[in-house]
Design brief:
By secondary structure, this protein is α+β, with helices and mostly antiparallel strands. It contains three helices and 17 strands. It has an eight-stranded antiparallel barrel with strand order 2-3-4-5-6-7-8-9. Strand 5 and strand 6 form a beta hairpin. The termini are far apart. Keywords: Membrane, Transmembrane, Transmembrane helix.
Length: 314
Amino acid sequence: MRHKQSSPKWTPTRKLWAGVGIIVIIGFAFFLGLSIAGHQSATPEPSAATSSKVKVQSSHKVASSRRPDSTGDVDVLSDLTEKAGENASTRTNDNEKTYSQFKQQNGTWYWWLTSSKRGTIEVGEVRSVAKDGQTAQLKMKSEYYDQGTNYTLTFHWLAGSNTQYNLNTDFKQINGDYTLGDTEDDVTPAKDVNLQDVIESTVGRGLGYEDASTQTNGGDQTTSEFYGMNPSRNGRYAHWYWDFSSKKRGPIIHAMIGSVKVDYAGNPTSFEMSDMEKQKDFTVNVSYDWSSNTYHLWTSYQNIDGRYTNDEAH
């Protein structure tokens, strides 16, 4: 016969240990809860300001580096994309021939001014073009000679021509006439020309009197004379000279001419000279007009710049 088992009796000792166990379990659970809560509080939710900042940064776009298109009457420049050489009549810097050319890149037009001596002289960005008949005003920004400088470049076709044009600006005092397609250096070395033949057929055809338009010093008219000395039996002169004087000041320069440079037509473009009194070498630039027997003469030596008409009676 099986005996029915009776439930264990809860003695005071058992009741004590049971209580201790419950307290330990509750304490552990409470400590675990605090640990989880502490970890969560250490990583706060992004504030509204932080969220806005992240949003701005993620949506920010870097500005394009592409330049704005040239605006206005840019169709004018389409006729000037061919390289053009400077005419002899406007050259300076010891008869330096410069070249002008307009080019378009990605909607923006640029102007290049170059020379064989100096390479690139200026690259200008064309910001806008305003056309008025045969003339156009180009708003420019220098990209090479004086970066960032703004200036106006004025263009116009020369009278009766669609292949020659003038460009002028106060920026570095640029002012030149150019012929489209003229890309060759047309100056002939002095040793290949005869000094006497050049002078006698151009600037040596009489005594040159200065025009009123270029006179300075209170209207003091200067004279320019090219002549030969010490002729041989065949009529050839051993030496050639240039005398420059004025009514008020008398003789100013007496120079021996060493050599001459000419253009493709045989006109003189510059003379190499030496001041006989001051023993000073210098260059005189010349632009001669056959039709009127006149010439423009300029040199940095004593800052001479004048236009002269030959009087063949002298």
